[in-house]
Design brief:
- The complex is a heterodimer of chains A (83) and B (138).
- With 83 residues, chain A is an all-alpha fold.
- Chain A has one domain.
- In chain A, α1 runs antiparallel to α2.
- Chain A is elongated.
- The termini of chain A are far apart.
- Chain B has 138 residues and is α/β, with parallel strands linked by helices.
- Chain B has a domain of 72 residues: Response regulator (Rossmann fold, 3-Layer(aba) Sandwich), CATH 3.40.50.2300.
- A five-stranded parallel β-sheet of chain B has the order 2-1-3-4-5, with helices on both faces.
- In chain B, α2 runs parallel beside α3.
- The longest helix of chain B has 12 residues.
- The radius of gyration of chain B is 14 Å and the shape is globular.
- The chains are: A mainly alpha (83), B alpha/beta (138).
- The interface between A and B is large, with 33 and 39 residues.
Chain lengths: 83, 138
């Protein structure tokens, strides 16, 4: 983990948090979609709440790091392709 | 018709496992690599139809993987989709300049990922088996 410039720390935090969020989204959706077995409606509701809050964390992360010196600019919320 | 084969190169085991489950459920064959060196080696060994590539990889990084693939004619034609937790238009531009077909920022929406994969493989949209959720089973 970087120990000096705060810009390095911001980039490090952004990268690590996005990776962790990616896993939360990935496995949460695997559960909701029934790929690991059928969930009860109550279980689905709980996992959905978890996913909604993970989305909130992502929004907070984007907002918090937006404009921090040295933090790479975030991409627009769309997929860029060269097809 | 045989399943299309996708190579996933990412140093995060959880990401690999999650993508493996998701793509397997959509009838793709999967092969995995955890660093840049083994990513190129696995591409040579398994000749995938598509590569999902992280940028921050041990033993060289994702851009090195794309450079190496371009040097081998049989691998240079494989479409590459970059999926990275690095943000920034700089990485996106560099990925496109290196030959990537798409740049996705983690966390990636599953439906968007599958749509981009189908596009890269030249498959019609949403022809894969629907999930249990799509079928109303859960």
């Amino acid at each position: 983990m970087p120990t000096q410039p705060s810009s390095d720390l911001s980039a490090y935090l952004s990268h690590e948090l996005r990776n962790a969020l990616a896993c939360i989204h990935q496995f949460g959706n695997i559960l909701v979609d029934g790929l690991a077995g059928k969930l009860t409606s109550e279980q689905r509701e709980y996992v959905s709440i978890m996913l909604e809050n993970a989305s909130t964390i992502r929004s907070v992360l984007d907002s918090a790091l937006d404009g921090v010196p040295g933090t790479p600019e975030k991409l627009p919320n769309k997929i860029e392709t060269y097809f | 018709m045989p399943n299309k084969k996708i190579l996933i190169v990412d140093d995060d085991q959880d990401v690999l496992q999650g993508m493996h489950v998701r793509l397997k459920a959509n009838q793709y064959d999967i092969c995995l690599a955890v660093d840049a060196f083994s990513g190129v080696a696995e591409a040579r060994r398994s000749a995938p139809d598509l590569i999902l590539l992280d940028l921050g990889l041990p033993a060289g990084g994702g851009f090195m993987v794309m450079d190496r693939l371009k040097m081998i004619p049989s691998l240079a034609i494989i479409p590459v989709i970059v999926i990275s937790a690095r943000d920034g238009l700089g990485n996106q531009k560099r990925a496109f300049d290196a030959g990537a077909k798409a740049f996705l920022q983690k966390p990636v929406d599953d439906k968007q990922l599958l749509a981009v994969i189908r596009q890269a493989l030249g498959e019609p949209a949403a022809t894969k088996k629907p999930t249990l959720h799509d079928q109303g089973a859960v």
